[in-house]
Amino acid sequence: MSRYAIARKAFWDARVTAFGGGLLSFSLALMYVLMFPWVQEEFEGIELPSVYESFAGGAGSITEPAGFLATEYFSFVPLVIIIFAIVAGTAATAGEESAGTLDLLLAQPVTRKRVVLEKATGLTAAVSVALAAGAPGAWVGQLVVDFDLAPWRILLAMVLTIPLALLFLVLAMFAGATLPNRAAAVVFSTSAAVAGYVVQTLGLLVTQLEGIRKLTPFYWAEASEVLVGDVNPVRPMLLLVPAAVILVGTVMAFERRDIASGARDVGWRGWLPWRRPPRTA
Question: Is residue 38 part of a domain?
């Protein structure tokens, strides 16, 4: 098998994540930048609720370009791309198994370790394209309206969100390599992402929960500090450490997994006591 063939195939299989997610990022960034003059005109001089300042973080008010982008774009678009990444990550392991193509792939002269690492490489490229595509959308909007924010800051804020998505990508791959089927892997990974997002959001709104949100990956990937002031890329890049640990765990789990040919007949009903087959003597 040619070098990086699995990575290229993984990228192509995740084309919905790369191009669909990229189109979404591009369109929303463009839309928000074009909306900014109207928002600035409507809310200039008005004392807004503190919740808006909380979402903007250190980027300022929503009547300022950085604060507006932090509040409207970076508050939820990364979560949407994370969902794309979870779907692609579970498809790379449990998805291929349920489709009956994984055993055919492993019949080729490739190791399971190479399969996991190359799939992770291809999916990383797909997720990176999806997130970085928001920068050109914002730049196009800046050609039309007055949006005084350095283009390099916009691009860097998009790029430094990638480690957050990669963390949940490899978590999805790990879940697909360990849990019985893809549905369980999707539920587990999505629940983890939504739970982290909810804790992060509540931490912004409830003073008593402010400290807890520091335990979530979303806190470390906040874009507000990148959009204004000094840039500290170390903070979001720290998320690559747990991502690497989970990837190692995925390789170990995948090497020990008993690959089924086709979908596994496993569901929640199978865990009920009265659904279990009787023991034979």
Answer: yes
Interatomic CA distance for residues 150 and 229, integer angstroms: 12
**What range does the domain containing 251 cover?**
5-275
Phi-psi region of 202 (alpha: psi -120 to 50; beta: other; left: phi over 0): alpha
* Rounded distance between C-alpha atoms, residue 1 and residue 144, angstroms: 49
The whole-angstrom separation of Cα 210 and Cα 164 is: 20
Half-sphere exposure of 12 (CA within 13 A, CB side): 6
pLDDT tens for 108-128 read 888 889 999 999 999 999 999
Q: What is the pTM of this model?
A: 0.85
**Position 120 in a domain:** yes
Q: Which residues contact 108 (CB under 8 A, 6 or more apart)?
A: 1
To which residue do tokens 């929303």 refer? 28
* Contact (Cβ atoms closer than 8 angstroms) between residue 117 and residue 251: yes
Is there a domain that residue 222 lies in? yes
What average pLDDT does this structure show over 28-33? 95
Which percentage of the chain shows pLDDT scores above 70? Answer: 84
Which tens digits make up the pLDDT trace of 85-113? 999 999 988 887 777 777 778 778 888 89
Name which of 205, 193, 195, 182 is nearest 94 in CA terms: 182
Query: Is position 281 within any domain?
Result: no
> pLDDT category, 274, cuts 50, 70, 90?
very low
- Report the domain count for the chain: 1
